[in-house]
């Protein structure tokens, strides 16, 4: 897949990066589920880097209380649909790529259609039960997903692609207890979202997942990163079927 003159100029600084593979990014298709704090920021970096086809899925509308962390949106956007707005903003950022907006949530029945032809799924969700649904879809469709979650002062990232790795249900099989709505330190998606984008871009260019069976945890109160390793769980209700 050849790059146009304007693409070569747009991506000039990253084309200089050792091992960079712009053609692979251009031919990639990624589903971003949720375009709020995490998904909006990771999708911005995927668009800017030239991932050829982004499918943005979110059924929500912008609320005033989103704006401490969802930097794709402005006060004037309150009440507008997030997926269409995100697609408009990211298309303006990079008109070279194809962006689809889908005003829907991921369910058991539509996941195959939403993820059709995708190489990777980005988790931009805001609750664990929806993530468990995404985890099942990822397993059923054999499409890896980049997990990201934030809660108060803590954020975490991982990559799931069973049976090569454990799945989310191996390590966190149930909805986690905690206050609703989830408390969120607004800058935290700005740490975790780009980590998800970095992992995604690395995977799309190389096919390698550098944090297999590891959870990277960042705590904003101590500014400490920690990596916790895990393994597949034989009794897992999702990926345990193939063990
Ligand atoms: Zn599992």
Descriptive terms for the model:
9 helices, globular, alpha/beta, 19% strand, 243 residues, 8-stranded mixed beta sheet, binds zinc ion
SSE layout:
Blueprint: H1 5-10, H2 12-15, H3 22-26, E1 29-33, H4 37-49, E2 53-57, H5 82-93, E3 98-102, H6 111-114, E4 120-123, H7 128-141, E5 145-151, E6 154-160, H8 168-171, H9 189-206, E7 214-219, E8 224-229
Parallel strand pairs: 1-2, 1-4, 2-3, 4-5
Antiparallel strand pairs: 5-6, 6-7, 7-8
The chain binds zinc ion (ZN).
- Mean model confidence by pLDDT: 96
Helix and strand element order: HHHEHEHEHEHEEHHEE
User: Count of DSSP helices?
Assistant: 9
Under CATH at level 1, the class stands as: Alpha Beta
CATH fold name = Rossmann fold
Physical arrangement of strands within the biggest beta sheet: 3-2-1-4-5-6-7-8
Low-confidence parts lasting 5 or more residues at pLDDT below 50? none
Radius of gyration: 17 Å
Bound molecules: zinc ion
> What percentage of residues falls in helices of 4 or more residues?
25-40%
Count of distinct structural domains: 1
Largest sheet: 8 strands, mixed
CATH superfamily: NAD(P)-binding Rossmann-like Domain
**CATH architecture heading:** 3-Layer(aba) Sandwich
Q: Kindly, what is the distance between the CA atoms of the first and last residues, rounded to a whole number of angstroms? A: 39 Å
What does this 3D model show about the protein?
By secondary structure, this protein is α/β, with parallel strands linked by helices. The protein has one domain: NAD(P)-binding Rossmann-like Domain (Rossmann fold, 3-Layer(aba) Sandwich). Helix content is 33%, strand content 19%. It is built from nine helices and eight strands. The protein has helices at 5-10, 12-15, 22-26, 37-49, 82-93, 111-114, 128-141, 168-171, 189-206; strands spanning 29-33, 53-57, 98-102, 120-123, 145-151, 154-160, 214-219, 224-229. A hairpin with a 2-residue loop joins strand 5 and strand 6. Helix 4 (37-49) packs parallel to helix 5 (82-93) and helix 4 crosses helix 9. The longest helix is centred in the last third of the chain and has 18 residues, at 189-206. The radius of gyration is 17 Å and the shape is globular. 41% of the residues are buried. The site of zinc ion has 11 residues, from helix 8. Zinc ion (ZN) is lined by residues 162, 166-167, 169-170, 232-233, 236, 238-240.
